[in-house]
């Protein structure tokens, strides 16, 4: 297993590199200027999914663990945030924090089970656990079953800023996205991140060097779950809705697809992938079930011929890690 | 008559449903285990191929007028042939890469197949009649046993045990097991391993299609019929561990029964009980009940 893991795309991750700074400024600039020409709610959706995909990429790209159940953190945090905001009347920042904390707790529980196996088994276990969470959400009284939690109030940030104003909401989502992105960047480039990469490349060697591999994996899993929850909680406030769609396995598949299209193990890949997939869904929405077919076809093409993904290919062409 | 305060009719009825579900879990997890043994990939398309088997039976009946027994032979062959094409044109290019790419590719294929059928036939189920010879039911004294359900359990057990016999007790099976251990060495002895891999994938897929045909009269034929089932089967595979063929069969039937019992005693958990068992097994025996940790 370990020798095969080496064939996943490898990102060089030491130091803050100048071209990465330029790329970051470009990305932030796009999200700051784009609302002048593009519908802001659409951009907020892209940012939520971009953060979700970045969180997912933390596991697959840097620890080599493919989770097929990340929707459970995304969707569960959405429910928790929506419930806290609507029923308990939490202010938005506390509601999102509560949602994120729920995802973190769920991450600890599922992570302890999932990291007991590797490779393909890890993917199957996370998928099965996510399906269990899906059935829980379908039956639990607070989620509203098929209806979901609707008309979630956006409320006032810190009790001061009215988030029903679309620009205030946009600023909040932008801040959360950039904050989450920079945190992931920091994690990947920290000594902790280097150990994660060592585990991905050669787990037995990392063990023989004295690292408690399971602790590192669990922490990476929980961090990834928590950040996915942050994205899910934010999304439920943007759309004022938490529904079963966000905990369903198709959502887990979508985040895998976004990351794959953008480039596994690249820093900017998940953001580009999320933008591409969300845009595609937007334009193909009237085609109904053909969206699924197109997504499946993209999966197949990416795996067979385009394994580096968009950002990975660009990075390969200019010989720099993006 | 009551047992633990539950009417026996209800208890045995649910146990029967459990055994039926278990038959399908066993057939599907057996196919997954056979494919995994040689190809080292988890076939995510398995659920879609099970659905293809059921649709094949439906189309053979409604377009060509060929009945259940014809379908039982033709559908696995047709779907198995598509499996062979998939293996030759796509999966074969991935063997040198991380196994996760095989998972991603088959997941994409499942989305394509299920999406196309949903466009064509919508999400609602289509009925498929029980074959004439197997309509009706017999009185066992404590319950009524529909003939078709008895047939499904017997047929599934037969196919499972037959597969086990071929793999564990015949010369062909010994080649297969040897190729699982060390493909390069088996090839050096002059055995065409790539062809064996192709046929194994085709066989695993044919098993899924066979399960689909058998399921058509019981569950309705619908594009989504395999999508959720395959996740449960994954959990079954994790519980059993993929090391042994017999393990896959025993776990499949056993978990079907447990699920049936849960429906009687605590219906709220019937959807999740298999996942809960999976969590417990992971805590106690991470390699699975019949697996060996490498």
Describe the SSE topology:
The complex is a heterodimer of chains A (322) and B (294).
Chain A (H helix, E strand, L loop, with lengths): L1 H4 L12 H16 L6 H23 L8 H16 L5 H23 L4 H21 L16 E2 L3 E2 L3 H24 L1 H11 L1 H6 L4 H26 L10 H14 L6 H16 L5 H16 L3 H9 L5
Antiparallel strand pairs in A: 1-2
Chain B lengths: L1 E2 L2 E2 H32 L6 H19 L3 H22 L9 H23 L15 E3 L4 E3 H23 L1 H11 L1 H6 L4 H23 L11 H14 L4 H21 L7 H12 L10
Antiparallel strand pairs in B: 1-2, 3-4
Helix pairs in contact in B: 1-5, 1-8, 1-9, 1-10, 2-3, 2-4, 2-8, 3-8, 5-6, 9-10, 9-11
What can you tell me about this protein's structure?
The complex is a heterodimer of chains A (322) and B (294). Helix content of chain A is 70%, strand content 1%. Chain A has 14 helices and two strands; from the N terminus they run H-H-H-H-H-H-E-E-H-H-H-H-H-H-H-H. In chain A, helix 8 crosses helix 10 (213-238). With 294 residues, chain B is mainly alpha-helical. The longest helix of chain B is centred in the first third of the chain and has 32 residues, at 8-39. Chain B is globular, with a radius of gyration of 19 Å. Chain B starts with a strand and ends in a 10-residue tail after the last helix. The mean pLDDT of chain B is 90. The interface between A and B is large, with 45 and 44 residues.
Runs of chain A with pLDDT <50, length 5+? 1-6
Distance between the termini of chain B: 50 Å
Assembly level: heterodimer
Share of residues in helices of chain B: over 70%
Cα distance spanning the termini of chain A:
26 Å
**Strand residues, percent of chain A:** under 5%
Strand content of chain B: under 5%
**Tally of contiguous helical segments of chain A:** 14
Number of strands of chain B: 4
Low-confidence stretches of chain B: none
Q: Class by helix and strand content of chain B?
A: mainly alpha
Class derived from helix and strand content of chain A: mainly alpha
N-to-C SSE string of chain B, H for helix and E for strand: EEHHHHEEHHHHHHH
Q: Give the overall shape of chain A, derived from the CA principal axes.
A: globular
- Outline of chain B, from the CA principal axes? globular
Most strands sheet of chain B: 2 strands, antiparallel
- The CATH architecture name of chain B reads Orthogonal Bundle
Strands across the major sheet of chain A, in which order? 1-2
- Tally the helices of chain B: 11
Biggest interface goes to: A-B, 45 and 44 residues
The name of the CATH topology of chain B is: ABC transporter involved in vitamin B12 uptake, BtuC
């Amino acid at each position: 297993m370990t020798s095969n893991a080496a064939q996943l795309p490898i990102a060089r991750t030491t130091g803050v590199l100048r071209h990465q700074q330029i790329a970051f400024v470009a990305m932030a600039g796009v999200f700051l200027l784009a609302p002048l020409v593009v519908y802001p709610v659409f951009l907020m959706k892209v940012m939520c999914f971009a953060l979700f995909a970045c969180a997912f990429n933390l596991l697959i790209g840097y620890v080599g663990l493919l989770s097929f159940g990340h929707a459970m953190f995304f969707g569960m945090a959405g429910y928790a945030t929506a419930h806290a905001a609507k029923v308990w009347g939490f202010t938005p920042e506390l509601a999102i924090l509560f949602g994120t904390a729920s995802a973190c707790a769920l991450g600890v529980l599922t992570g302890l089970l999932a990291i007991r196996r590797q490779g393909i088994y890890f993917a199957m276990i996370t998928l099965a656990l996510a399906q269990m969470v899906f059935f829980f959400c379908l039956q639990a009284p607070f989620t509203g079953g098929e209806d979901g939690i609707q008309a979630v109030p956006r409320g006032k940030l810190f009790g001061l800023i009215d988030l029903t104003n679309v620009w205030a909401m946009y600023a909040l989502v932008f801040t959360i996205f950039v904050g989450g992105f920079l945190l992931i960047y920091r994690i990947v480039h920290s000594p902790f991140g280097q150990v994660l990469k060592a585990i991905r490349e050669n787990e037995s060697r990392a063990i023989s060097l004295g690292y408690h591999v399971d602790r590192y994996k669990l922490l990476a899993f929980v961090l990834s779950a928590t950040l996915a929850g942050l994205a899910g909680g934010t999304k439920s406030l943007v759309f004022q809705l938490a529904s079963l769609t966000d905990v369903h396995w198709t959502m887990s598949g979508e985040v895998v697809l976004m990351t794959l299209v953008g480039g596994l193990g690249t820093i900017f890949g998940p953001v580009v992938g999320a933008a591409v997939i969300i845009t595609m869904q937007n334009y193909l929405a009237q085609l109904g079930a053909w969206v699924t077919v197109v997504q499946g076809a993209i999966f197949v093409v990416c795996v067979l011929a385009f394994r580096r993904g968009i950002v990975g290919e660009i990075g390969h062409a200019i010989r720099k890690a993006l | 008559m009551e047992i633990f305060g539950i009417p026996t009719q209800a208890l045995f009825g649910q146990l029967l449903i459990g055994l039926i579900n278990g038959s399908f879990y066993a057939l599907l997890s057996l196919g997954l285990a056979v494919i995994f043994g040689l190809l080292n990939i988890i076939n995510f398309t398995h659920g879609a191929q099970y659905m293809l088997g059921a649709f094949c039976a439906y189309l053979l009946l409604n377009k060509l007028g060929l009945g259940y027994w014809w379908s039982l032979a033709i559908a696995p062959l047709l779907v198995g042939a598509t499996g062979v094409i998939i293996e030759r044109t796509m999966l074969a290019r991935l063997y040198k890469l991380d196994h996760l790419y095989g998972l991603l590719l088959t997941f994409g294929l499942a989305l394509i197949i299920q999406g196309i059928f949903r466009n064509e036939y919508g999400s609602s189920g289509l009925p498929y009649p029980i074959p004439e010879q197997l309509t009706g039911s017999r009185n066992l004294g404590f319950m009524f046993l529909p003939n078709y359900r008895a047939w499904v359990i017997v047929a599934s057990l037969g196919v499972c045990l037959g597969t086990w016999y071929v793999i564990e007790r015949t010369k062909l099976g010994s080649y297969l097991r040897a190729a699982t251990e060390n493909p390069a060495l088996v090839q050096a002895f002059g055995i065409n391993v790539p062809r064996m891999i192709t046929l194994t994938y085709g066989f695993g897929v044919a098993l899924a299609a066979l399960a689909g045909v058998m399921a058509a009269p019981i569950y309705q034929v619908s594009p989504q019929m395999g999508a959720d089932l395959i996740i449960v089967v994954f959990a079954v595979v994790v519980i059993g561990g993929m090391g042994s063929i017999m393990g896959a069969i025993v776990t499949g039937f056993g978990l079907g029964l447990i699920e049936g019992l849960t429906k009687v005693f605590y219906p709220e958990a019937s959807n999740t009980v298999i996942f809960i068992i999976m969590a417990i097994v992971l805590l106690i025996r991470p390699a699975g009940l019949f697996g060996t940790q490498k």
